[in-house]
UniProtKB/TrEMBL annotation, chain B:
SUPFAM superfamilies associated with the record: MetI-like
Transmembrane segments: 40-59, 102-123, 135-158, 198-216, 236-256, 296-316
Domain of life per record: Bacteria
Protein name, per record: sn-glycerol-3-phosphate transport system permease protein UgpA
Length: 281, 323
């Protein structure tokens, strides 16, 4: 039994796809043309012949954008940010969730609320005092300062707590009969059991870390710590007052900044959707 | 679950048992039949997360509340306690009120458009068979693009010299001047924000639709001949919990996650450009050096967000009841 599919359905979907994808394609294509061509002809839908040149310059040319830093360096920093954040989040939240679900101990409820209150307030509303705390601790312009404060939100803990609660009780009973202690049970049973969940969370958190903008903007004044997102801000600042801005380089930077997260989503689509819809952010 | 307690005594009982749980060892609803009974081990697992939460969440949050009651000397020589003055100043300023009005408008329109378009695309993608995976992959991929990147690409489309949307508007006789004209900028920021958010809503609506059992779909096909009626009477009620959840998420998105889009489009120059409340907190604090005023605005926002999140949890709970 099937519904009748009208051509209109496909038409709507195609319009939606065009609306979402066309800007991305045009950014990609325009990055392979010269700024003067873009300036006089507008954005392109076909590839040009200056792609190699532009990307080589963006990736390796020192001072391409800011005077001190190459695109490759920013790419590396974004990678550190994405992977560091995802790994940190998984390790911290699995441990915390384990303690909250599998142990009977004093103050458990208070600690539970202390951790989950962090879900109430995003970083943006306490951005000024957070900056002051970081500068007091001397963590400006460090990778620690870029990554660790973002780990304060309990999204991951919430997710792993839900997951651990769904693990059958019999596992722990059996493990205890076999004489396994809390560390052994965690490492030998719970961690291997969570492998798919960890992968799904990793994808979501990698994208989240990679795409951070406001925090790196405040934390880094030293250009060697710039991420690609921070680079976008700089290239726009350079534009002010220039005759013909380097449109092609800006597009190239945008393309570099979106390839890794988009690739992750497309390649690991199933796992990504699972992580997103089951974690409820 | 708490709503089931109607009588006073039952409620008192619930509060008492909660209180007991606060100081006793047990959690109110034991999650596991068996638990480890060691007083110190759990702390080892909790300490890293607790340390980060205390240093990077509670410390700055408390500081935001404290400094909202002070006016800081611009040269860094101490601060004067002024009570609620920062709050009064913020709430009474016409600039704050116009920013708040714009923020409300912005949230409403971004939420409505991205929810509506996301739902439409999800319903259609759920229906078609040929090409469905391709549509799905293409529609989802934009999710991964960061808001500042979306802002940058959007800026190019609205560019005064070579932006295609500028040309398109010219066809209709409108001179689109993003960054200069208030409503033109608003239009650009709304478009970019909606563009970025559609995939998120699409993913949730589609997975909501696909979890509807085949038997329900078939029954609906027999009962309701017209597609619109089937959508209104069967699909929409089944999607209601997802929609409520997304509503809160989308409001939070419009409030906070659009910050980079504003930063890229408005570029620190709010002169005659629309901005949101979050952007104003940032401008007043970092560009204007008005730490007290910025903190007071932060606290007001905190209250708004906390209310939103509580709402979100209530809907989440209800979602479980729907099944």
């Amino acid at each position: 039994m099937m519904q009748k599919i009208k051509p209109l359905d496909h038409l709507i979907l195609i319009a939606g796809v065009l609306f979402l994808i066309a800007p991305v394609v045009m950014a990609l294509m325009s990055s392979t043309h010269t700024p003067t061509d873009i300036h006089s002809n507008g954005l392109y839908l076909t590839p040009g012949s200056h792609g190699g040149e532009t990307y080589r310059k963006v990736l390796t040319h020192k001072g391409g954008f800011t005077g001190d830093v190459t695109g490759l360096r920013m790419l590396m920093n974004s990678m550190i940010m994405g992977i560091g954040f995802a790994v940190g989040k998984i390790v911290l939240s699995m441990m915390a969730a384990y303690a909250l679900v599998y142990f009977r101990f004093r103050f458990a409820t208070i600690l539970f609320w202390m951790i989950f209150t962090t879900l109430l307030l995003p970083l943006e509303v306490r951005i000024m005092p957070s900056y002051q705390v970081m500068s007091t601790l001397g963590l400006l312009n460090t990778y620690t300062g870029l990554i660790v404060p973002l780990l304060a939100s309990a999204t991951g803990t919430f997710f792993f707590r839900q997951f651990f609660r769904s693990v059958p009780d019999e596992l722990l009973e059996a493990a205890r009969i076999d004489g396994a202690g809390p560390f052994k049970f965690f490492i030998d049973i719970l961690v291997p059991l969570s492998r798919t969940m960890m992968a799904a969370i990793f994808i979501i958190m990698f994208i989240y870390g990679w795409n951070q903008y406001l925090w790196p903007l405040l934390m880094t004044t030293d250009e060697t710590f710039y991420t690609l997102m921070r680079g976008i801000k700089s290239i726009l600042q350079v534009w002010i007052g220039s005759q013909i801005p380097d449109y092609n380089e800006a597009f190239a930077l945008a393309v570099l900044a979106m390839i890794p997260p988009v690739a992750v989503v497309v390649i690991f689509q199933r796992m990504f959707i699972k992580g997103l819809t089951e974690s409820d952010k | 679950m708490a709503e089931t307690y109607h009588t006073g005594s039952a409620r008192r009982g619930a509060i008492l048992s909660r209180l007991r749980a606060w100081y006793s060892a047990e959690t109110p609803h034991p999650v596991k039949r068996v638990q480890f009974d060691r007083p110190l081990t759990p702390w080892l697992f909790l300490v890293p997360q607790l340390a980060i939460v205390v240093i990077f969440f509670y410390w700055p949050s408390v500081q935001a509340v404290t400094s909202s009651f002070y006016i800081e000397d611009p040269f860094g020589f101490g601060a004067t306690f002024v009570g609620g003055e920062n709050y009064v100043d913020a709430l009474a300023s016409s600039q704050y009120l116009s920013t708040a009005t714009f923020t409300a408008f912005f949230c409403a329109i971004v939420t409505a458009l991205s929810l509506g378009i996301g739902l439409l695309l999800a319903v259609k993608a759920d229906k078609v068979i040929r090409g469905a995976p391709a549509y799905k992959t293409l529609l989802i991929s934009v999710y991964a693009i960061a808001p500042p990147v979306a802002g940058l690409i959007g800026m190019m489309f609205f560019d005064m010299h070579m932006g295609p949307l500028k040309d398109l508007a010219a066809l209709f006789g409108h001179d689109l001047r993003v960054g200069i004209d208030y409503w033109d900028t608003a239009f650009a920021v709304v478009t970019i924000s909606v563009w970025k958010q559609i995939p998120y809503n699409f993913i949730f609506f589609l997975s909501g639709l696909q979890s509807v059992p085949t038997s329900v779909r078939e029954a609906a096909l027999i009962d309701a001949r017209s597609g619109w009626r089937r959508f209104k009477d069967v699909t929409l009620p089944l999607l209601a919990p997802t929609a409520f959840f997304l509503l809160v998420i989308n409001i939070t998105y419009s409030l906070f996650d659009t910050f980079p889009i504003f930063d890229v489009v408005v570029k620190d120059k709010p002169a005659n450009n629309p901005i949101t409340l979050v952007y104003k907190v940032y401008l007043d604090g970092f560009k204007g050096n008005d730490i007290g005023g910025s903190s007071a605005q932060s606290v007001i926002l905190m209250i708004v967000v906390a209310a939103l999140t509580v709402m979100q949890f209530r809907f989440l709970e209800r979602r479980v009841h729907y099944g």
